[in-house]
Structures are given as structure tokens and as C-alpha cells.
Amino acid sequence: MKTGPKNNPINILLADDSPTDVMLTREALAHAKVLNTLHVVEDGVEAMAFLRGEGRHAATVRPDLILLDLNMPRKNGLEVLAEIKADEFLRTIPVVILTTSRAEADIMKAYGSHANCYITKPVDFEAFAEVVRAIEGFWFTVVTLPKG
Amino acid sequence: MKSQLQTKPIDILIAEDSPTDVMLMREALDHARVLNTLHVVEDGVEAMEFLRREGKHSAAPRPDLILLDLNMPRKNGLDVLGEIKTDENLQSIPVVILTLSRAEADILKAYKHSANCYITKPVDFDAFAEVVRSIEGFWFTVVTLPKS
Questions:
Q1: Is the pTM for the entire model greater than 0.90?
Q2: Which residue among A112, A120, A147 places its CB closest to the CB of B91?
Q3: What does the DSSP 8-state code read for residue A71?
Q4: B48 and B76 in contact (C-beta within 8 Å)?
Q5: CB A138 to CB B134 under 8 A?
């Protein structure tokens, strides 16, 4: 298995409105195998502004991976997903749906809109951290990502 | 991570023309955590027949995951991927590209055509088996798959 790029940290965009989940994700990734920078946005409108470098996100980087919650204020995760995957420039960025929803309709819609994978957040803190580490391990040491 | 209470084995479709690689994948998945049934097709035309239940594949199950090689006879992996991801009935099935190609053009095209992820086959046998087990571990114990 390969190690991540040594010079530049991997950039992860986390779109999640739960401060607890953001904190847990941040902690799990702080101990990750691959050096990473976590960028956090709290709703779908801000997620799209980040990805398009608009407003206060004018100087942002293109993320290597997006962790996307479904239930968010202003613009929900499925709408964000559809916008990303319909955008020629953004669609190659892998999007991991990370949500508490287990609704079959959400799962089907997400895969139908070309989510790269759908993961249900465990309620238990330890299990949640383990899932975040599993995402990091798979996407950054097993998968070959597109060049940013 | 969730524990699997399986009633029926997971169906994996492998589209791969290298008998050695098929054998290695079969062995790696024999020891997998999740009970699975492997279905092997050797080119892209047969892959589409399997997925559309045509000809000798009329009784084929809908796979839970597809492991797709790129360089195959008759119809290559990128063409198969394009057909799967534009077919209403098939597009929600996760497709993992598993190939020797490290060409940037292939990686980018695969993600553009909505590959769920792109993985480069290690040349070393043990590393290859480890990658196959990582795929199995991630997709079947971390990810929530769409109902087939």
C-alpha cells in the first residue's frame, strides 16, 4: 500500500452542522496515517461556496475528499451532491456521504446521484472514530485519487 | 463498525481477463470477514450480459459490488463503467476500478464516469491480496450499500 504524499497534506472538506461530530472527526483524523488538513463548513450553501472559491472562500484549495452530511441547514447534502456531480470541474472529487440517516430512500438517492460511498454514522463515539479512521485508511492508502 | 448478520452471501462481480489475478482475488476473498459469492466474467461484453441477465446469464443475481478491470478484450472497462453509470437500473451498484494502469488519463476518466473508486493493483502478490481484503473490509463492513 502506498503512503500519502509526503510534502502536501491531504485536504479534506467536512460539511457537517453538528459541532460534536466535527470534533470527533477532527480528533480521529489528528491521529491518521496520512497528514491531512481538515476544512469545515456548516451548511450546504457554504460547502458550494468553498468548492467554487466564492466569497470568504476565495483562497481555498480543492479538497482531495469530501465528507458530506445529509441533513444540513440552507441546502441539504443531496442537493450539494447533485451539484458537485453535475459540475464538470468538481465531479471527480470523491464524495463520502456520512450521515445518521438509515432511510432507504436517502441511500438510493445518494448512490443514484453518484455518491462515491454512503456511510451511516454510528451513535457510539468510539465506533464513530473507528469509521472515520477506516475512511481515511481506505481513501488515502488504498485508493488512487485523481490529481487535484 | 457494524457486525454483519448475514442471511445471504454478498454477490461480487469480477470483470477480469487475467486468470492469475482472478485466482488471487478468489483466495483473498475466501478468508474474508463477510460471506461472499464471486461471479467472474472475462471481458466487458460478458460483464454487460451478466448485469443485464442476457444469454447464459439469464439467472444472474444483481451484484452488490463490481470489481472492474480496465484493459479487457472486446469491451474495455471504461466503456463498461460508462454503460453502468448511465443505466437507471444499474447505476447505484458500486464499481471499484481495479487495474494495473496508473495513467493519469485513466484515473481522471474513471472518476468522471462516476467510478466509486479507483485502485491500482500492486504487482506484489501479498500486497495485492491485502488490497482485495481492504476493499472487502471497507465496502462490506463500513459502507452502507444500496439494497439489491
A1: yes
A2: A112
A3: S
A4: no
A5: yes
